[in-house]
Amino acid sequence: MSFLRNTLSKFSIFAKSDYKPLVSNFLSLGLIQVANFLLSIATFPYIVRVIGVERFGVITLLQTIMLYFVVLTDYGFNLSATKDISTNRNDKTRISGIFSEVMTTKLVLLLLSFIILSCSFILVPDFREHWTLTIFSFTIVLGQALQPTWFYQGIEKMKYITYINILNRILYAVGIFILISQPQDYLFINLINGISLIIGGVISLFIVFSKFGLQYSFPSLSQIRKQLVDSWNIFFATLTVSISNNTNILILGIFANPLVIGYYSIAEKVFQIMRTLATILYQVVYPRVCILAQESFEVLAKFLRKFFRVILVAFLPLSFLVFAFADYIVYLITGEFISEAALILRIICFGPFMAALNIPASQTMLAYKLDKLYTVVLTIGAVINVTLNFILTFHFQAVGTALSIMLTEIFITGLLYYALYRKYPHYTFFINSPLMKSTKV
């Protein structure tokens, strides 16, 4: 009984009224992911059956390319702007200014993205061949640019994003089932996705102005430039991670046949679902970290030490369960016992646990404006990931890819904490030492 009480006490930080927004936002983001998962199960098989595997590969490739434009237009604002909104949440005038600057900067980057895409029609023959699909796919970038998710994160009101994201997915699913009925309709799949995102973005902006009373004012060029400069390190880190994460299957495709890639994809799907929990925690906790960091590091450290224990209690048992039942998980997905896929899943199932472990260190860096150090760590991690992928995948194929992912996750997590300890020991929150003293931002 004492063990049970001690275990439950780890979660006591979420029972207090001050932390009720954390629980609410976690559940809101969790509901989004559940809705996305269920609707993906409904639409994915239908799309593949109607348009065929080859055309599905084409639209997936375009979606991946558009993802890089999404990273460019987001420009790290999901972290930098979230922090600015969170720390100024009681100053409506300042929030309006931040909102105006960020949205205008995103539109400038959106225009830049379209110019780059237009130039690609001249330089890349494949784009010219699929120019209609490419233009339709760009609506995804527009839709994502209109989403002020960073604003709702900053004010800790994620329920609005929950409603809007579920609406987006429902609109997408309805559009797919109504409009996609023959192979030639593959041209419209990404367009349907983009339009649903645009509708959600417009509704989000309407809520921002009507519910929260923000006023838009056109920012000066110096203000836009300041947003670009201030968010550069976070943008570069995000871009580095995006490039790193999207190279795994690409490198595997160089050394392995489609069957091996399929085995890896099954395991990676489960890995991504597990990692989503860490992503949700990251998004939910970050605004609160920024607020506590303003009070003092002692207050923040107390919160982070409790949060660290929550991660251990929540994620470690989940990873062990997936490890133990990997064969049955693969069977539930495929209807077959595939030992190769189960082995890959066992290797990478602790990756989300490691990703959750690095949340306290990475958010401490961001809260105290140690963006350059954060960027350096992630850049080193990305280089190591790509290097290990080429070496291990060449020798062990999908197992090598899985090993490279796991080793990279361990390295990044360890390096984040080590970098804090070596460079900024007064931000080390594991040890109660004289260095752990109140440090105002």
Automatic annotation (TrEMBL):
Keywords: Cell membrane, Membrane, Transmembrane, Transmembrane helix
Cell inner membrane recorded as keyword: no
Main location: membrane
Entries under Pfam families matching the protein: Polysacc_synt
CDD domains: MATE_Wzx_like (cd13128)
InterPro entries: Poly_Biosynth_Transport (IPR050833), Polysacc_synth (IPR002797)
Species of the source: Pontibacter flavimaris
Locations listed in the record: Cell membrane
Cellular component per GO, a single term: plasma membrane
Transmembrane segments: 21-44, 56-77, 98-124, 160-180, 186-208, 249-266, 310-331, 343-361, 373-392, 398-420
PANTHER family: O-ANTIGEN TRANSPORTER-RELATED, PST FAMILY PREDICTED COLANIC ACID TRANSPORTER
Membrane-topology descriptor: Multi-pass membrane protein
Protein name: Uncharacterized protein
